[in-house]
UniProtKB/TrEMBL annotation:
<protein>
    <submittedName>
        <fullName>YqjF family protein</fullName>
    </submittedName>
</protein>
<dbReference type="InterPro" id="IPR023375">
    <property type="entry name" value="ADC_dom_sf"/>
</dbReference>
<dbReference type="InterPro" id="IPR018644">
    <property type="entry name" value="DUF2071"/>
</dbReference>
<dbReference type="Pfam" id="PF09844">
    <property type="entry name" value="DUF2071"/>
</dbReference>
Length: 252
C-alpha cells in the first residue's frame, strides 16, 4: 500500500476512547530525551514502522515514573499489583497509516506479575527490577536494578530538580510527549494500540544525575551525549483502546 503522510502532532488525542479495556495513571514522570540519527534506530523498530522525525531528527527517550492503579475492563484499579515504579526506554515511530506512536525497547517494573503478563500476553519487553521513587521538596530520585530476565543488574539512577510549569510547550516538547499510541510486534504482526489522556501538565526540570545503562542494554548506540530535553510531569490518568488494524504485514 502507498504510505499515508504522518498525522499531525496534536496536544489532545485525535479520537477519544469511549470504552477502554485498560486504565491506569502515570504519576511523577521524568522525561529525558536524546537526539539521534534515524538510520541508527530504524533497525530496532518493528516491521511496518519507521522512525518518526522532527526536522530530520528522531529521539531516544528514558522515562521514569510511577504506575498507579492499573484496571481492566472498567473495574477499579488495583492498589498493590497495579501500582509500581516503572522506567522505560522508548523510540518514536510512524506507520504506513500515518499513525504516530512509540516503540518500547525495554520496560523495567517492580511487580513480577505485571511483568510476566506484559511479556506473555502482549509481547512487551517488560523486565522485573528492584526500584524506588523518592521525592523531597523539588527533588525527585528514581533508582532501578534489574532482576529478570536480564541482563541482570542493568540499572538507572536518576535525580531531577522540578522547576517552573511550562506555559507554552515548544514544538519539540509536543513531539516528544503528545503520543497517542504504541506500535508493538506480537505473533508475527505489528499492531497499534491507541490511548488518550488529558493534556500533560509539564514542568521544566534540571537533570542532577543520570547514571544508567538501560539505553545501551536496549540496543541503542551509546554514548548519546547530553540530553536535549528534560521535563517533569505530576501525571495524568490514561485509557487504552482496542488495537487498530496492523501496521505492515505478517512476518515470515
Amino acid at each position: 500500500m502507498t504510505p499515508v503522510p504522518p498525522e499531525p502532532v496534536t496536544v489532545d488525542a485525535r479520537k477519544a476512547i469511549s470504552r477502554p479495556w485498560l486504565t491506569q495513571s502515570w504519576l511523577d514522570l521524568t522525561f529525558i530525551h536524546w537526539a539521534v540519527e534515524p538510520r541508527l534506530v530504524a533497525p530496532l523498530l518493528p516491521r511496518g514502522a519507521v522512525p518518526d522525525t522532527l526536522h530530520g531528527i528522531t529521539y531516544v527517550g528514558l522515562i521514569a515514573f510511577r504506575m498507579h492503579r492499573v484496571g481492566w475492563f472498567g473495574l477499579p484499579g488495583m492498589p498493590y499489583l497495579g501500582s509500581f515504579p516503572e522506567t522505560n526506554v522508548r523510540l518514536y515511530s510512524v506507520d504506513e497509516h500515518g499513525r504516530r506512536g512509540v516503540v518500547f525497547r525495554s520496560l523495567d517494573a517492580s511487580r513480577l506479575l505485571p511483568v510476566v503478563v506484559g511479556r506473555a500476553v502482549f509481547g512487551l519487553p517488560y523486565e522485573w527490577a528492584r526500584m524506588a521513587i523518592r521525592r523531597k521538596g523539588d527533588l525527585v530520585r528514581y533508582t532501578s536494578s534489574r532482576r529478570w530476565p536480564g541482563p541482570r543488574g542493568a540499572y538507572s539512577r536518576i535525580t531531577v530538580r522540578v522547576g517552573e510549569p511550562v506555559d507554552e510547550a515548544t514544538e519539540l516538547e509536543h513531539f516528544l510527549t503528545a503520543r497517542w499510541g504504541l506500535h508493538n510486534a506480537f505473533l508475527g504482526r505489528t499492531g497499534y494500540v491507541p490511548n488518550d489522556h488529558p493534556r500533560w501538565p509539564l514542568h521544566r526540570a534540571t537533570l542532577l544525575q543520570c547514571d544508567q545503562d538501560l539505553v545501551g542494554t536496549a540496543g541503542l548506540p551509546v554514548p548519546l551525549g547530553e540530553p536535549v530535553s528534560v521535563l517533569y510531569s505530576p501525571g495524568v490518568p490514561v485509557r487504552f483502546g482496542v488495537a487498530g488494524r496492523p501496521a505492515g504485514i505478517a512476518t515470515p
